[in-house]
Here is the input.
Amino acid sequence: MNIFKRSFLLVSVLFLSSVHVLFFQSCVHAQERLTTPTENILNTGLGALNFLCDMERFARTAQPNMSPSPNSVYDFIVVGAGTAGAAVASRLSEIKSVKVLLIEAGPEESLLMDIPLLASFLQPMDEINWKYETEPSDNYCIGLKQHKCRWPRGKVMGGSSVLNYMIATRGNPLDYDRWAKMGNPGWAYKDVLKYFKKLENVQIPDIRKDKKFRGTKGPVSLDYAPYHTPMLPAFLEGGQELGYPLVDYNGEKQIGFSKIQATMYRGYRMSSNRAYLTGRSMPNLHVTKMSMVHRILIDKETKRAVGVVFVKDKRRYKVYARKEVILCAGAIGSPQLLMLSGIGPAEHLTKLGIEVIKDSRVGDNLMDHIAHGGMTFAINLTVGITLMELMDISKSYTSDFLLEHKGVLTISGGCEGIAFVDVDDPKKRDGLPNMELLALASSSYGQKITMDNFGLNDELVNKYAQFLNVPSWGVFPMLLRPKSRGWIRLRSKDANVKPIIVPNYYNEPEDRRVMVKGIRLALQLSRTKAMQKYETTFYNRTITECEKYQFDSDDYWICNARAHTLTIYHYSGTCKMGPRSDPTAVVDPTLKVIGIKGLRVIDASIMPDIPSAHTNIPVYVIAEKGSDMIKEEWGYLKS
Here is the structure.
């Protein structure tokens, strides 16, 4: 039993033993709120029982876990039930005459996973996180254990949309226009805008009015968190002091400051599983969970994908596809499966003893957004909420959420504000930004759980130890348009062995230059009048290696960036989309694997260039557009 279930059970037992007269109301939500410490404890107990009832109801609405008969035949097989896979499987299941199989390596999503502030607490859970790591490096992640970057990835119905921080950003129109200019017709902003609108159901009243750019009828709910700390308005006011407008960054223009628009509905996370699968009757969709795909079955003579091999409960299954196999396993899983199946760099596959079916640059072009994690600030003690306070059930933080789906626990993984800027042209208000500032409700290094998630080494943990549970604020300067490219290769031809991941962060001098400017902008923001109302003070701690440089010199910040290198979990590009004439392309603009029939990739791995966005919403667009291309291919798309 994990820590969350134990906590809720403990609270429930406390409640039952103290106020047994209210037991009959255990599944009836309270109508009135009480506020004394004792009443808050009782409210928390009542709320915990309500929540357990809601968890049970939520579990009953999940798609059933079905094990196919050996050698079963489906029209479409979708591998991976993450952001893309859940959407693709749902959209294909709209075709009532076809049978669809969705294969997911992880378990069903729990309502407990959808409490927004608990995002950081999900990463340590082995059962829902692949827990990838990069190879050691002396150029990045040097302040982390063994110089390895930790790369979380969702292994659960909903995939990484269950683990992420729910930040909903589209990117810039010019990002998609560039995709089209790279030889991908149909992917310009004018072509994908309808899919951005199709997928979303914006709950924010002022933004819902924008019918030109925003959608209100899609499955994915977007909203502001019901709660924010005083640091959010300070962040927004600080941005205005620096001359930036407040914007709907998913609307006409991106540059400016804003509250975070989150994939959230009524205070809960809105994962792809909840948006596209949960509670829907789809008799032509079969979902097999806890099922690990080992290989794509490819007819060597016709070069056609005909099915997959997967393992469930230690039993090996072969299932077949009449029409297509669709990989939605993400920027790590999809290239790994292609290479295991004989599609990849010939020299690499040959060394591992894998028969080469198609020589292809699978695993190249690896991209990611990274942030400098060391921007931590102490703030006035009258502001801020520590983890210890959140755990105190004599206060209303927990009961606010359990009874009303409001309060601190609705903050998107602790992230509150966002800004898109061009650090090379601070007066620019249109066009492409090159830096994002992500404002946190408190410092990421103010909590032990986040330091463990990032994998900080002992030196940094010790240097931040006195900062634990101290009221604080943090901001991540995030590199939006990295030039550096990495790669992924197999470590073994055993599907259970994790691949080799080399992101090559900061390989390009341009990335280092822009990050330094972003760090200085974050410091400038902290010195604005709005931020200084809370006595915001930079808490400067770093590894010994960086202390030899003068504070605020370029060398000092570059060293710090290499030490506090944090992924923002936007792995992409490893099955690059491009014209068939492009020797680096793995899939064509219709997402078909070049050189193999009946096989597509639909996920973040197809991105030819990383957009200026958190990649969750762009992946939904790839899934929605990819689903329509499949329907059109087979004559199912209604005009």
Q: What stands out?
A: The first strand starts at residue 73 and ends at 79. The radius of gyration is 24 Å. The mean pLDDT is 92. The chain is about 30% helix and 20% strand.
